[in-house]
Amino acid sequence: MHEMLTVVNHPLVLHKLSIMRNRETGPKEFRELLKEITLLLTYEATTHINTYEVEIETPLAKMKGKMIEDKKVSVVPILRAGLGMVDGVLSLMPNAAVGFIGIYRDPITIRPVEYYGKLPPLNENEVFILDPMLATGVSSNRAIDIVKNAGGKNISLMCIICAPEGIDMISRHHPDIKIFTASVDERLDEKSYIIPGLGDAGDRLYKTR
Ligand code: URA
User: Does the pLDDT value for residue 162 go beyond 90?
Assistant: First the structure.
């Protein structure tokens, strides 16, 4: 298993994930839960980020406090379902920059094809790549390549649910990447859906089925 894998199994995350997985849960609640779980994953995924000291005057005294450099944070959702995670991160780090990567898998060659890319400067930044479902790992793996080629160094991948196959893919190509997830599920089916998973995250978010 990937050395830098953190499975966030806090009761609040497990509770919200169970509602998300339920086929009866509609798009409004699904979107809210995706945002909330992402926020909780963000709490875990940011324990290592830098802080700096600030002077504060409370109503009673002067003191030194700590703040994070959220201007040095970049969030990169993989289109389309990753979009549903952006607000969860931004609600905790509103000054983060947001980049976008669009990737689909060519059904004939099975290779990932990048159809859109717009990244902010990444050099010194903490970069959080967002992909709710790490299935085969092909798209996330390609997104990590793209972020590294654009100068990204401190990269974390945040996923709601992972398949072991996806984690293996990232481990083989990018062992330096930290992965944060709410669950490692059993396996992929023959169409590369995660079992038990939650179905197609994009379709459930945007009601395209
Ligand atoms: N993408 C999804 O949205 N769901 C899966 O199960 C696999 C990939």
Answer: yes
What CATH topology corresponds to 5-206? Rossmann fold (3.40.50)
Query: Shortest CA distance to 1 belongs to which of 150, 204, 184?
Result: 184
Atom of ligand 1 nearest to the CA of 202: 3
Ligand 1 probe mutation, 134, 190, 194, 203, most atoms within 8 A of CB: 194
Taking the C-alpha atoms of residue 125 and residue 153, their distance in angstroms, rounded to an integer, is 8
- For ligand 1, atom 2, the nearest C-alpha belongs to 200
Q: What is the pTM of this model?
A: 0.96
Convert the pLDDT of each residue in 146-159 to its tens digit. Answer: 999 999 999 999 99
- From start to end of the chain, where are the E strands? 5-7, 51-57, 62-68, 73-79, 97-98, 100-105, 112-118, 126-130, 133-134, 154-162, 178-184, 187-188, 194-195
